[in-house]
Amino acid sequence: MKQRLQKVLAAAGIASRRRAEDLIRAGRVRVDGAQATLGASADPEVQRIEVDGRAIRAARQDYWLVNKPRGVVTTVRDPGGRPTVVSILPTGLGRLFPVGRLDRDTEGLVLLTNDGAAAHALLHPSYGNEREYQVVVRGEMVPPTLRQLERGVQLEEGVTAPARVDSIVRRAGTTRFHLTLCEGRKRQIRRSLDALGHPVLRLVRVRMGPLRLANLPSGAARRLTSEERRRLERHVQHLAGADPAAVQPGRRPGHQPSEKR
Questions:
Q1: Per-residue pLDDT reduced to its tens digit, 29-39
Q2: Which domains does the chain have, with CATH numbers?
Q3: Fewest Cβ atoms nearer than 10 Å: which of 56, 114, 209, 226?
């Protein structure tokens, strides 16, 4: 599949996209023997791409799950020296980047990959990819408040999109539930629950699309299985090809919050 040349060079570990653009402008990149121009595309699987006369190898697409602990930041590197999700991975894997972000105090599933197309589909706000979280909040939330969380909460930038609440447990002055949503505003869950008067005590992402955290220990990482890769590929194709209006809502028709006491 053809991709922008700067993206191909970045995925192959040659340079960042910005630096790759400089290499192209300087006439140092050739495709099938012809000098490349900025904005050109190429298929690294079938075309010969050279930088300074040396052919590059197409990067093998790789996918890893990390169970991010609290206190770890979801970036490739951190100027302040804080631990990052990339530091949890084994060394020598090549360039991988996190798909989306969890804030520093949120735990759970982070996907890291070099597959830009998959990352785009999973994160595009119009495609409606689901993220599921296990949430523990202060106070025992009453049904009208839970329904408000499902319908949408007024934040500074507007009302949040519909969500889905399941598996509710009220115990000892707290409420535990699963929250599934399709949008990813900054600190959306924490801000929504603060607005409803129930601050978050713990927040763990347990699912992204078809990928589940399952029993991966905190602070551990593993490569996707072959079956998980196939499910992810089918899911990405569905997201990219579906009518966004059909996949956007997080709430199933006629759904009511389910409770466990």
A1: 999 999 999 98
A2: 3-55 (3.10.290.10), 63-125+214-245 (3.30.70.580), 131-211 (3.30.70.1560)
A3: 226
